[in-house]
Amino acid sequence: MKNIEEWIDRAENDDEKKFRQAIHLILLAISRDKFLSQNLVIKGGIVLSLAYGSERYTTDLDLSSLDNMEVLSKEDLELKLSKQITAVVALNDYDLKLLVHSIKYMPKDPSKVKFPAYKARIGYADSTNKNAIKRLDNKQSPHIIELDISFNESVSVSDTENFKLTDRLNVLCYSLEQLIAEKYRSILQQIVRTRSRRQDVFDIHYLLNQEASLLYSNETKKTVLDKLIKCSERKGIEEYLNQFGMRDEEIKRLSLEDFHTLSLEIDIDTEVPPADMYTVVQDYFESLPWSNLKI
């Protein structure tokens, strides 16, 4: 795994550096609170970027909960985040101020969805810029990091590992095997969700290249498959959850749809055509020990 200082130093400009510093402070805030540090798990593109060096990520911070976050009201969540954010801003020498702008329950009627979530909006501003701080204090900062905190998901401690922030502070993040499993689940779920997830093929292809020595071992393949089966429960993808699921033409079409738009986010290695990336990702999927699976 990389360290977060290296990740911040890789920023291409000052605005990007401030964004990464703000992410660092938010993670430190989570790590300092006992409940949050033991129950929130970072997932998605930020984990790929922080831990594995990928430059494809969004400005959102996606998290899952190990425990049912309904035991924590949004008011209590705001208090916990605000308290620790104030502390880490004071303890660090970044020229930044952060402020929780809002926390909402998503959707507004959680009884209508199986996996509700909290959406927190945290603003940040250059502490040396009086106008920027004034806008921040009025909760009108244009610089926002959204925390999407999902709960009631099938995530356990065994699906996580620690990402080290300091000698004493860590945050939980998805393990490499869990990342791969979740992305395969997302690929198979495209038809059910009727939306394209072209980034998942790119991400798995990237990880298969970066972590080949680990991911291609028989033991890891078994772990990936076990986690894929677990995270696919009640997702409506049973008919694709087999060795040849990725051969479905609609899944392939959706996976490659608008693939070229990834170039708006990152510098894509154009030497590897999207269809070839899909083939590599499909081959790994089919190499998982499906014959040993007991369904």
Structural features, described:
The protein is an alpha/beta fold and 295 residues long. It has two domains: 4-174, no CATH class; 176-292, no CATH class. The chain contains 13 helices and seven strands. It has helices at residues 4-9, 14-32, 34-39, 45-52, 74-91, 130-137, 176-188, 190-193, 198-210, 212-215, 218-231, 249-256, 274-287; strands at residues 40-43, 60-65, 96-106, 117-126, 144-150, 160-164, 170-174. A seven-stranded mixed beta sheet has the order 3-4-5-2-1-7-6. The mean pLDDT is 91.
Q: Which percent band covers the strand fraction?
A: 15-25%
Task: Briefly note the structural class of the backbone.
Answer: alpha/beta
| Number of discrete helical segments | 13
Number of domains: 2
Distance between the termini: 34 Å
Radius of gyration, whole Å = 20 Å
Classify the helix fraction into a percent range.
40-55%
Strand arrangement across the biggest beta sheet: 3-4-5-2-1-7-6
The low-pLDDT segments are none
Output the helix-strand order.
HHHEHEHEEHEEEHHHHHHH
| Rounded mean pLDDT score | 91
How would a crystallographer describe the biggest sheet? Answer: 7 strands, mixed
